[in-house]
Amino acid sequence: MKKHFLSVAASAATLLLLAACTHELKTARVSDERFVPLKEGSEIGFTADYDMEYITGGVPKDIMDKINCTLITEELYEPEGTDMPAACKSWMTASCAGYQEEAESMVEDMEIDLDEDGWMLNWSSSVSGAFTEGCKARGWQTYCSSSSDYQGGAHGMYGETYRVFDLATGELVQESDFLREGADEDEDLIELLYESLIAGMDEEDVEDGLFGMPYPNANFSVSNEGVTWHYNPYDIAPYAFGVLEASLSWEELKPFLK
Q1: Which band of pLDDT confidence, cut at 50, 70 and 90, is reported for residue 23?
Q2: pLDDT tens string 208-242
Q3: 214 with 185: CB under 8 angstroms?
């Protein structure tokens, strides 16, 4: 009887996994752009925009809410909630209000001449996100978020953050969920990532530009083919290098998997 129960349980678990692997997500996008002048009628001001994809169906509601809540709290800095359109509006309102308060304070404290140095207060902030590839065999789905901010100076800052969700639970997938213990410091794995990283780079850039090694950094995406780690400006290379990537197939990763 016990053996039969275990067999039924295993079959049920298999069916749940297959369901997670085969369903199609239903999503929607919400976007907006706004310009807030520093002073009425001024061309100096703050530009903010967002373009966020979120789940509307295709998974149970509790999983949908958990994933949307994670995106809202991590990307839009809202403490809670599952309503993406409302959260995006809140982010926009807070960003614009924050600019006006900080910029007006700078003008007063630093006595900025807007006619000559107003360009320093032409700021911008942008956030976007979209579901990309996934690994159907594991029931995992990747979400890529991009953000950029400019507050004067030579250049702004930007980056890409990748999150992988388990569509059976709504939880974020961690490297420890698929890499064996200690693999993140295994020299053989680091070497494979390094070879992948430099494959499309000029030799001079490799010698003079890289200042770090591509360790697994928790910023990864998954696909049916394998795993890609992403390195933002200043992670392991200068700003001008942009976002660097190192991809390994599941076959290449096999010695390092659980």
Answers
A1: low
A2: 899 999 999 999 999 999 999 999 999 999 999 99
A3: no
- Strands 45-57 and 26-37: what pairing? antiparallel
DSSP annotation of 150: E
- CA dist 76 and 88 (Å) reads 7
Q: Which residues contact 129 (CB under 8 A, 6 or more apart)?
A: 51, 52, 53, 71, 75, 143, 144, 145, 146
The span from the CA of 107 to the CA of 18, in Å, is 59
Nearest Cα to 59, choosing from 22, 29, 86, 31?
A: 22
Is the pLDDT confidence value at 142 over 90?
Answer: yes
| Amino acid 196: pLDDT | 98
Give Dmax (Cα) for the chain. 85
**Taking the mean position of all CA atoms in its chain, how far away is CA 169?**
19
Contact criterion met (CB below 8 Å) for 78 and 69: no
- Eight-class DSSP state of 174: P
- Give me 103's structure tokens: 């910029």
Question: Does residue 189 contact residue 183 with C-beta atoms inside 8 Å?
Answer: yes
Packing angle, helices 84-110 and 61-75, rounded to 10: 10
Span 168-190, mean pLDDT? Answer: 97
pLDDT tens digits, 96-120 = 999 999 998 888 888 888 888 888 8
Q: Hey, what are 152's tokens? A: 């004067």
Question: Residue 63: which residues within 8 A CB-CB, separation 6 or more?
Answer: 167, 168, 169, 170
User: How far is residue 214's CA from residue 189's CA, in Å, rounded to a whole number?
Assistant: 10
Cα 192 from Cα 198, distance rounded (Å): 10
Give this prediction's pTM: 0.88
Report residue 188: phi and psi, to 5°: -65, -40
